[in-house]
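Sequence design from tokenized structure. All designs in this work follow the same two-part layout: the structure record, then the generated sequence. An example of the structure record is given first.
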């Protein structure tokens, strides 16, 4: 991480400081509910104003109209774009540390690890005892794998990915790629840096061709004993609970939270920034557009209680016959 002062940040962003000493050191970007005196955070949506008022952030990026009382604020015209730039300055992407050998000299391999020809292990990564890397696997820098993990051919772990014990990941899956984050500035889509990581709990299994994006700042999590089918997409900052089932071609948008024992059947779509309660079931080809309480059973587009959806479909199927009868009576 880098370090700059509040005034340095104001100068770079062309903003105006309020209630903040110009020489306050700022060392990192954090969400409002995790920020501390050395952090900068941001408020782009007024519905999170209460969270901003209660935040411990040393500096909050906000637009000129935001009323944050005596909180330390940097007024900018586009807080989200300012947030993206601050990430790039304070959390620069490190240069890859290639060691010239398939296993970097600073990597640590536990007893009984097997690394196949064509597999690579990055700098400072740690593999627990008995891990198996098949041909073509790449484990990036600063990754941690618990004992007994098995990664099949073509698996890629971006830097800082963390796996628990006995995790299995099937061919060509990618964990830790950049989340899909952009902000429109002057007619162009500017990238929001993604500097978080991915965490996978003990005994989880991830199918082939699965993609799990790293978080913007913190982790994207897959809970212990969760089973992910082939061709599933998990967006940045998603939190998946324990013992969940994510079936093929499901897509979960960013910052959504799933409780424990949630089942998402095939081709389910989930919008971002919602919560799905524990032990909920979402039927195949459904789209979840709002938060669901614990124990829900929903289907359809948009997803609604299963009985309600089946009744509406039955009524819809009767429409052609009813129209035919009406025309016959006209």
């Amino acid at each position: 991480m880098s370090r700059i002062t509040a005034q340095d940040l104001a100068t770079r962003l062309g903003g105006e400081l309020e209630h903040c000493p110009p020489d306050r050191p700022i060392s990192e970007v954090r969400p409002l509910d995790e920020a501390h005196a050395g952090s900068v955070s941001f408020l782009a949506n007024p519905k999170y104003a209460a969270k901003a008022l209660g935040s411990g952030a040393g500096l909050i990026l906000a637009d000129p109209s935001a009323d944050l009382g005596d909180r330390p604020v940097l007024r900018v015209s586009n807080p989200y774009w300012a947030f993206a730039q601050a990430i790039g300055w304070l959390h620069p992407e490190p240069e890859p540390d290639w060691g010239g050998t398939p296993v970097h000299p600073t990597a640590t391999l536990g007893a009984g690890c097997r690394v196949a020809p064509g597999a690579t292990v990055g700098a400072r990564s740690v593999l627990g005892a008995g891990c198996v890397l098949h041909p073509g696997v790449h484990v990036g820098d600063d990754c941690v794998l618990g004992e007994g993990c098995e990664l099949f051919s073509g698996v890629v772990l971006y830097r800082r990915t963390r796996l628990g014990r006995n995790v299995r990941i099937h061919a060509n899956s990618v964990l830790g790629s950049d989340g899909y984050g952009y902000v429109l500035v002057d007619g162009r889509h500017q990238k929001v840096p993604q500097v978080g990581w991915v965490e996978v709990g003990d005994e989880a299994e991830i199918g082939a061709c699965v993609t799990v994006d790293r978080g913007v700042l913190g982790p994207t999590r897959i809970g212990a004993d969760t089973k992910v089918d082939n061709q599933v997409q998990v967006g940045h900052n998603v939190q998946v609970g324990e013992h969940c089932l994510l079936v093929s071609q499901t897509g979960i948008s960013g910052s959504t939270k799933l409780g424990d024992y949630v089942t998402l059947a095939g081709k389910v779509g989930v919008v971002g920034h919602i919560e799905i309660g524990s032990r909920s079931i979402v039927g195949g080809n459904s789209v979840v557009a709002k938060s669901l309480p614990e124990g829900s059973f929903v289907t359809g587009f948009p997803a609604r209680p299963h009985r309600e959806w089946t009744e509406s479909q039955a009524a819809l199927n009767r429409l052609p016959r009813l129209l035919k009868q009406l025309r016959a009576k006209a």
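The helical segments are 6-13, 49-53, 79-90, 306-329. We note this feature because it recurs in several other targets discussed in the main text.
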